[in-house]
Amino acid sequence: MILYFSGTGNSKYVAQRMAEALNQSLLSMNDCIRSHDTSPVETDERLVIVTPTYAWRIPRLVRDWLLETEFPGAAQVWFIMTCGSEIGHASRYNRSLCQTKGLTDMGTAQIIMPENYIAMFDAPQAEEARRIVAKAQPDIDRSIAAVREGRPFPPPHDRLYDRFMSGPVNPIFYACFVKSSAFTVSEACTGCGRCARRCPTNSITLRDGRPVWGKGCTHCMACICYCPTSAIEYGKKSLGKPRYHFEAL
């Protein structure tokens, strides 16, 4: 089985490629997290988890859901992490998660996809995004081959920088940057509610036809990147930046 969490479509795309190539079923962790569904998930022995990289690890809400959910039948787990540049030393924390769950860690693969974290970085224009996705195909194919053949992913590099970013920087990043207070909405808002429907933590509600952000934001960027009128901004950091979601390619 292929489990995926996705904010703006990168990880969903990779998961769909994996599922089609391996003839495996797909499960959206977004749906499970939104509905607070932690009932057991029946799988075969091989489990593939596809997720974006948040602060050089898997997202906390994904980690928490995996810890709370049982996977009868699962024995081996491959992690595939999409990112704009790097995943740091996330493999260490994925391995620890597997140990807690009593599962065999088969490694973590990094897939570089178009950047979407416009609260801090620039998202690519459409043509550049297409180029990045095309360049990612061989890495996706290698990941598919490893799972199909039951091989572990090659060990990632283990630099001091990677350990630092996934280690002490991760909690500092969440504490200092992952907040919803900077989100604003302009008069261009039509009240369509797409932002609220896409929020994986149910943190957005509509008040008088306009979105209001609560405190559970995980910075997936789905609300700002899927807004059809580009009415949402993240303070001044997103001003003038292109929005990115995979389906826009």
TrEMBL record:
Gene3D superfamilies from the UniProt entry: 3.30.70.20, 3.40.50.360
UniProt entry keywords in alphabetical sequence: Iron, Iron-sulfur, Metal-binding
Entry-linked InterPro entries: 4Fe4S_Fe-S-bd (IPR017896), 4Fe4S_Fe_S_CS (IPR017900), EFR1-like (IPR047964), Flavodoxin_dom (IPR026816), Flavoprotein-like_sf (IPR029039)
Protein name, as recorded: Flavodoxin
GO MF annotation list: iron-sulfur cluster binding; metal ion binding
Sequence ranges assigned to domain 4Fe-4S ferredoxin-type in this UniProt record: 180-209, 217-237
Keyword Metal-binding assigned: yes
Keyword Iron-sulfur: yes
